[in-house]
Amino acid sequence: MSEAIGLIVDTYVRLGSRKALEDLKAHRCRLATELKSINTMLDHSSLINEIEYDIEVIEAGLAKLDAPVWARALGLGFHSRAP
CA angle 80-25-32, nearest 5°? Predict the structure, then answer.
C-alpha cells in the first residue's frame, strides 16, 4: 500500500488538491484511532504502523503544497521518505 499511497499523494499534490489530502489524512487518522481502541486477541500493530506511515506520506504531500511556488516548480525539497 505504501507505493499506492505515494502515487495518490503525488497526484493530489500535482493537482493542488489540499482538501483531498486533508480528507485522506483525516480518514487514516480515524482508522488508526479505531484500531488502537479495539481490544481483541489479534495484533493490529503492523496495520497501525502502515497507516501511520501513510499519514507521514500525506503530511509530506501537504508540506509540498506549503512550499513556495518557485520551490515546487524546481522540485526542491519536501520529499517523502522512501518505503
Answer: 105
Selection from 15, 13, 19 nearest residue 67 by Cα: 13
Torsion of CA 64, 66, 68, 71, to 10 degrees: -10
User: Using one digit for the tens of pLDDT, what is the confidence trace for 68-82?
Assistant: 666 656 666 555 444
Helix/strand/coil percentages in the chain, nearest 5: 75, 0, 25
Judge if pTM exceeds 0.90. Answer: no
In the chain, where the domains are located = 2-74
Q: What is the pLDDT of residues 25-59, one digit of tens each?
A: 999 999 999 999 988 888 999 999 999 999 999 99
Distance between start and end Cα atoms, the chain: 10
Residues composing the chain: 83
